[in-house]
Design goal:
It contains 4 helices and 3 strands, in the order ββααβαα. It has helices at residues 26-35, 40-45, 59-70, 74-84, and strands at residues 5-11, 18-23, 49-56. The longest helix is centred in the last third of the chain and has 12 residues, at 59-70.
Length: 95
């Protein structure tokens, strides 16, 4: 069985803050963020909107990428998101 791991970036409605996380079940994790479960930061800042994600088959590589992105400057994160999601739309809205 092949597992998939996701590094993801969520934001609030205003797109003023970003949270970066890693999970093996992206839809379930986003549902948890919506319900305010499992993350004080995302609950406090209402980071419910999926802006960006990457998929990995190796959990170690996913965690390494998460740590790397967390060290990026805000502008770098915004530029990464806009390369794949120029209008900063909620990628999970259709789920």
């Amino acid at each position: 069985m092949t597992y998939r791991y996701y590094v993801y970036i969520v934001s609030n409605f205003e797109r003023s803050v970003f949270y970066i996380g890693v999970t093996n079940d992206l839809e379930f994790r986003l549902e948890q963020h919506w319900l305010g479960i499992g993350g004080a930061f995302t609950k406090k800042y209402k980071c419910h909107y999926l802006m960006y994600f990457e998929e990995f088959d190796d959990v170690g590589k996913a965690i390494e990428r998460e740590k790397n992105l967390k060290n990026w400057h805000r502008d770098w994160k915004v530029n990464l998101i806009k390369q794949h999601n120029p209008d900063l739309l909620d990628l999970s809205a259709k789920w």
